[in-house]
Hints:
- The complex is a heterodimer.
- Chain A has helices at residues 2-23, 38-47, 52-55, 87-99, 117-137, 162-168, and strands at residues 72-74, 105-110, 145-151, 170-175.
- By secondary structure, chain A is an alpha+beta fold.
- Chain A has one domain (2-175): CATH 3.30.1330.60.
- A 4-stranded mixed beta sheet of chain A has the order 1-4-2-3.
- In chain A, helix 5 links the parallel strand 2 (105-110) and strand 3.
- Chain A starts with a helix and ends with a strand.
- By secondary structure, chain B is mostly beta strands.
- Chain B has 2 domains: 2-22 and 162-424, Neuraminidase, CATH 2.120.10; 31-154, Rossmann fold (3-Layer(aba) Sandwich), CATH 3.40.50.
- Chain B has 4 helices and 30 strands.
- Chain A binds chain B through residues 78, 106, 113-119, 121-123, 125-126, 129, 146-151, 153-154, 160, and chain B through 199, 201-202, 217, 220-222, 241-243, 245-246, 259, 261, 264-266, 287-290, 303, 305, 309-310, 331, 333-334, 347, 349, 354, 374, 376-377, 392, 395, 420-421.
Amino acid sequence: MKVVLKLIMVLALLWLAGCSSTGGSKSDGVAVEDRSDSGAAVTDATTTGVDGYGNLTIESLSDPNSPLAQRVIYFAFDSSEVAEQDRPLIEAHAAFLAANPTVKVTLEGHTDERGSREYNIGLGDRRAQAIRRMLEFQGVSPNQITVVSYGEEKPAVDGHDESAWSMNRRVELVYAGH
Amino acid sequence: MKKITLSLFALLLCASWLARAELTIEITQGMDGAVPVAIVPFGTAGGVPPQDVAAIVSADLARSGRFAPVPVQNLVGRPVETSQVRFQDWRTLGVDNLVIGKVEPVGGGQYRVQFRLFDVYRGRQITGYSLPAPADRLRYIAHRVSDLIYEALTGQPGAFATRIAYVISESANGKKTYELQLADSDGHNPQTLLSSPQPLMSPAWSPDGAKLAYVSFEKKRAGVFIQDIASGKREELSAFAGINGAPAWSPDGRYLAVTLSRDGNPEIYSMRLSDRALKRLTNGPSIDTEPVWSPDGRSIVFTSDRGGSPQLYRIPAQGGRPERLTFEGNYNASADFSPDGKTLALVHGANGKYRIATQDLDSGRLHVLSDGSLDESPSFAPNGSMIIYATESGRRGVLAAVSSDGRFRQRFSLQQGNVREPVWSPFEKRK
């Protein structure tokens, strides 16, 4: 009974993820997957019922149409608050990880270059911990998650202005081998 | 076994004690009232030594900002012995002080450096020394000569025969390389201690100057290491889940303060190095990091955003109630104590600019010293005269130094790559 309930929750989350992401589009120029097909993938999951777990395999990570294809979450300056629009994305990853307890994820926290380096390590850690708590709250086991903060040491974009900084304030979800 | 593999690994990484491109120094803001001084090229009867000692001394004194050595072509004589000095001539030149000396081979690849410092107006010798020097240590001995002259003239020990450690990052063919390097305080003799494809951070000198603690991400996670500079041997001291960062040595060398997030939040701990016993010093939901010990070892200053923005706080070294130290501006972080313990250097952020400032601990007065917009990582010279820090020039990371009164500035640049996180060594133990 418990399992069924959990499954319903997971599927509901996935469905939510699919729905809300079709509408939302980030304007920051990030390479975002084509989300128009993600609804279809989710439909498959709901119709196959209990076997839906089978669709949430490691292969989903390689599917550019899967909601799991987006693995970067961006933050405001000196903030570790997750934007409302990013919640469905995190919920999709949570559902996937909860359904695949052997899969492990590393949450890499990053900041922009402003301010001191070790404080930025702290800030990157705080961002990654915020995502960790959301994942765990949705049933992901703590031992599936590793948190590493790189602070400002590994910028995604080199540059000394807000256009670079906004791309560097981020948490990356890294699945080994993907 | 683990230790052996680690040191082997270190040896492999250090196999390249590469000679690197040197940091070149440019004085970017001169100082009014620098004292004119004449440094006569040293006599080299018996063979030309591998280093021009007088030229090194002259560059050192100019770099301090407090002296203005007379250009060699303007000197009014080339005395080597006291008997050859005609004080009247040097008075005409308008210099207060005169340095003469000689470098002589004494056999077996050894030299002897002798120098004398004169008060030109009184026509008297102020000080004079004779220093033995192996050929490969001549440059170092020249810096020692500068130290002795500086001390005789200012009453403050010189910090020329010291070193700086720093981190370099370079990108080539889409690959990043991080290097932990050491150089003399004038940028010469750069040596690579560690090279890694993953970030290296936060070098910190042991109080005896023999070791460096640092953070390495070489295992795709943070670890705090201590490396013996001479042998290259190292140990990983801290490899907990999450942050292992911001190492800082206690003045007696027995403890290392570190930042760990193993309990879910960045907190400051002190680790007893003899048995790695940990004591947690902070506790709360804020980011607590960047610990530094006061020179008397009694307290620790750190960065915390417990008040809403990053500010500096002080706690007793054994832990206790934090006292907030900084109030001006919305960002004050990355503290370093002056050697006398009376002043903090820090990164001060206001109006979107991050600059180096000092704060007097008694009065609380803040004094902004640098003029960049992304300045960071201040570190005092062991005599307190200068603060070295990281800044930007032409979109690249370079090092800069400013006198602790802010009147004199210089820049250290590399031909390529980004230099950052400079830390000035303690005084070298005299051998």
